[in-house]
Structure formats: C-alpha cells, structure tokens
Design a protein that fits this description.
This protein has 24 helices and 10 strands. By secondary structure, it is α/β, with parallel strands linked by helices. The strands form 3 sheets. The protein has a 5-stranded mixed sheet. A 3-stranded antiparallel sheet has the order 3-10-4. The two termini are 14 Å apart.
Length: 513
C-alpha cells in the first residue's frame, strides 16, 4: 500500500518537471541573442554545422546551440520553418526539387522569391557542389563495361542498395528510374552502412554524395549521369530571414565563408571524420585555423579516440541526464494517465477492450513515424515531441497490467469488502489496488524498460540522450561509437531492473511481516 501511495507523488513530480521544462524550452527559442544551428544526419552536414557555429561564435554573447543529426530533409527543414533552428547547410538541388517541389531547376533568385513568403532565404554559397550519383566497384564496372547510368540500366541483375531518403525524394530514385528505364528494385539502406555493404559485395550499386571520402578509399567508380538527370547541389546556407537583422555581427562573420570551401577541402574534411575518426568540432576548428593562416593543433587532433575514450567521453554525463529525464518524465506521465484510466474502464468490458485496443494500436506505430507526425502537429523538435511519443508508448503495459491485476483479485475478496459495508471506491482503494499492486508494478517495470530503449530514437529529432552517439555512429559507420551509445542504455536498463527487484523484495518483506 505504501508503494502505491508513492506512485502519485512521483507522477505529480513528473508533471511539475514537464511544466518547468516546457517554458524553459520556449524561452530558449525566443532568446534573440541565441544562434541555433542544425544539421542533417550525415558526415558532411555535421562538419558544416560546426563550421557555421564556430565562425559565428566570437560574435555572439552566448555559445551557439548545435542541433546535430536531426534526420532527413523533411525533419531539419521543419525545424527551420518552425523556428527551432536559425540556419543549416543545404543544397540548391534539394531546395528546388525537394523543399519547393519545383519540377525543374531554379536560380538562386527564384528560390529566394519562393522562400520569402515562408520567412526563409538562401545565402552564402560555400563554394562546392555535392551532387547525388550512383557508384559501383570499379573492378566490376570494368568487367561489365559499365561507365554510365545508361550502361547500368542494361544490367538488371545488379543489386542496388540505396538510402531510404534517396528512394523517396522527388529528385531521387523514381525520377531516375523513369529517365533511364531501370528495372531493378532497390533495397533501402542507411547511407553510412551502404559502404560496408558494397565493400562486402552484398550489393553492387549505391547512391553516393560526390564529396564522400570513401569513394576513392574503397575503389568505387562514380557512374556518369549521361542523360543529365541530377541538378547541381551547390552548398548554401538556408536561414530564417530575421537572422541578419537579429544577429548582424554573427551574420557578417558567416558571410566570410562565401566561396571558401571547395570540393577538395570538403572531401578532405569528410575523410578526417570517416577514415581517421577525428571529432567534427576539431575538424571545423582546424579548417578555420587554416583559413586564417594558422597551423592546425599538433597534439592529438588527428588521432581517433579509442573505444574507452568514446564510451567515457566528456558527453557521457550530459547524455545520461538527458536520457534519464526522458525516461523518468515519460513513465511518470504514463502512470498518471494509465493508472486512473485503467481503474475507470475496469468494470466496463466493452470500454476496457476499446481503450486497451487503442493503446495497443499506438504500440504498432513505428517510432520515427510517430516522431515525424508529432513534429508536424506541434511544430517543434527536441524534448517535447520525444516525451509525448515515449509517454504514448508507455501507456499500454501500465494500463493492461492495472486491469489484469484488478481482474486477478478473487471474487470472494471483493464480496468480503462489500459485506463489510465498503463503498466501491473504498473497496478499490483499500482492497483491490493493494492486491493488484505487484501486477501493476510489473507493468511500470515493463514500461520503463521500453522507454529506456525507445528513448535512443529521440536523438533523431534533437532530444539528446544516448541515441546521440548511435545516430552519429550510424552517420560515420563507426561501430565503436554505436556501441558506446548502446552500452550505457543497456546498463541503465539493467539498473532499472535491479531497482524494481529491490522494490518487489521490499513489498514481499512487508507482506511477510
């Protein structure tokens, strides 16, 4: 009974923590002196975000806020449009065809005219073109006589592994297949994993960015786009229109990047990240130092961090706090919602079946799809949509175990309460709930385990947590960094299991006494 009484203060505390968190988050978005820089989830975008942030930092009153690895174009663009970030590095082809849905290429002036009603604009051409292309192993290309995409279309037996974003983009696979008459059915892969797959000969052709560092490293042949399907993808800064007037000095500093990064420099920076394991912030700092005529730091900037260094890196404390916050608040909110709802529907069989079925339906929605829908509905990225999603996923086990625990109370015990003159609410509070508590607690235990694992997905929308390492590890195809994110989450899950074991042991001791 004492454990049951503790559930309510915990849930109320989580409500209070949430209400404290949300105004703080809103305030952070309204700070006129803050610069928020976003990135997509691939190596080059991480590096360019650091370059932009470090260039502007000396002209800011507070350090710029980096929202790295926000996902594909749709998510990072939504973050910009809704005001959650101020700018990010984008590509002209993507802006024209994917964002503005233009059926043809556009000039920068035309793009700015179309973006202006949205409160957005493009500026600061960085100096390089990073286009889409298809590539295959050079030895196989020579053997089969494949040099162009038209040649590739004549080999329908070759297996294509393409990034999921490329398959779904307006300027991606569907248009390319129609232009060249491809008969192949591509397999969807993460861009970072595709290089491993083609190296292991699991697939024959992948989509690449022309500034990828692994093209030459793995001996790949970039196939010629002989029918000129792909537009130019010149790197530019996509920004909110109020930024130049809100932060004029920082904007003036960013203007100095105009034309300063050529393709060779970008490939070299990508190579340092993907082949040498150098941190993104170090790569950006060294590049900017070289632009100013300074020497790159000699001490260790080139060395890749070992697994222990990645596991116990300086970000471990921050990621742990973020992960614990996501789990504690979401499970606390789920208890506050699911427990009274389970009690309410318990006596009504049809209503109970409907509510449990609805909660079960929420469990079938893929995590990333849930997050994408929530971002669209509430117009925000980060902690808020992540908490809502985790709370929704935690409802079913708590509600189901509440109903199951109440149903397992013997009929004779229920009748005894009635015989003693108890009202329905007294019987529920003094008899049924205490007896159902072990089953109810098992539901909270399950919900907590689910939340710990699912919270790693929240990093895809900038909510932090251990998933931040997993997202970056995927982008770099860095297995050690992936494990450095997955291992702390597994340890946290084991610690939560130990905590619930202690609670159940205490309950058994109190009942025995």
């Amino acid at each position: 009974m004492h454990c049951l009484r503790r559930l309510w203060p915990t849930a109320l505390f989580c409500f209070g923590l949430l209400w404290t968190l949300l105004p703080a988050q809103a305030l952070a978005q309204d700070q006129s002196g803050a610069l928020r820089v976003g990135s997509k989830r691939f190596t080059e975008s991480y590096i360019l975000a650091e370059v932009l942030a470090q260039t502007a930092a000396p002209q800011l009153k507070s350090p710029p806020q980096l929202r790295q690895g926000l996902g594909n174009t749709a998510i990072v663009y939504e973050a910009l449009r809704s005001g959650n970030i101020d700018l990010y590095a984008e590509y002209t082809g993507t802006i024209a065809l994917e964002i503005l849905k233009s059926p043809q290429q556009m000039t920068r002036e035309a793009m700015n005219a179309a973006l202006a009603p949205l409160g957005l604009g493009i500026a600061i051409p960085l100096g390089f073109n990073d286009g889409y292309a298809l590539a295959m192993r050079a030895a196989d290309a020579d053997k089969l006589g494949v040099r162009t995409l038209s040649d590739l279309a004549r080999h329908p037996d070759l297996k294509l592994g393409l990034s999921n974003e490329f398959i779904g983009r307006a300027d991606g696979w569907q248009g390319l297949a129609a232009r060249y008459g491809f008969a192949q059915k591509p397999t969807g892969l993460d861009h970072g994993l595709a290089y491993d797959a083609i190296s292991a000969k699991q697939i024959d052709v992948i989509d690449i960015y022309t500034t990828d560092a692994k093209i030459d490293h793995l001996g790949l042949r970039v196939l010629e786009d002989d029918r000129a399907y792909f537009p130019r993808y010149d790197a530019v800064v996509l920004h909110r229109l109020d930024l130049p007037t809100r932060l004029p000095q920082a904007w003036a500093a960013l203007q100095k990047l105009d034309g300063r990064i050529d393709e060779r420099a970008m490939i070299a920076m990508n190579a340092r990240a993907e082949l040498q394991g150098v941190a993104f912030d170090v790569i950006a700092r060294d590049f900017l130092a070289s632009q100013r005529g300074g020497a790159a730091p000699p001490s260790g900037s080139e060395a890749a961090r070992g697994f222990v260094g990645k596991l116990f890196g300086s970000d471990l404390g921050r990621l742990t706090r973020q992960h614990l916050l996501l789990v504690a608040v979401s499970v606390g909110l789920a208890i506050a919602i699911a427990l009274p709802l389970g009690i309410l529907v318990f006596p009504h069989l049809r209503l109970r079946a409907f509510v449990l079925g609805l909660a079960g339906l929420l469990q079938t929605v893929p995590s990333l799809a849930m997050l994408a829908v929530l971002i669209s509905l509430i117009g925000a990225i980060g902690t808020l949509p992540a908490l809502i999603a985790l709370t929704l996923y935690s409802l079913l086990p708590i509600m189901r175990n509440t109903v199951t625990g109440l149903a397992e109370v013997p009929a004779g015990v229920r009748q005894a309460g009635t015989a003693l003159g108890m009202t329905d609410s007294q019987s529920m509070r003094l008899v049924l709930l205490p007896l159902a508590l072990p089953t109810l607690l098992a539901g909270v235990r399950t919900a907590t385990t689910i939340a710990i694992g699912t919270a790693t997905i929240a990093a895809f929308i900038g909510a932090g947590g251990y998933g931040e390492r997993i997202v970056t590890g995927l982008a770099l195809n860095d297995r050690e960094l992936l494990i450095a994110g997955a291992l702390p989450a597994a340890v946290l899950a084991l610690l939560s299991e130990a905590l619930f074991e202690l609670i159940e042991y205490g309950m058994r001791r109190s009942r025995a006494a």
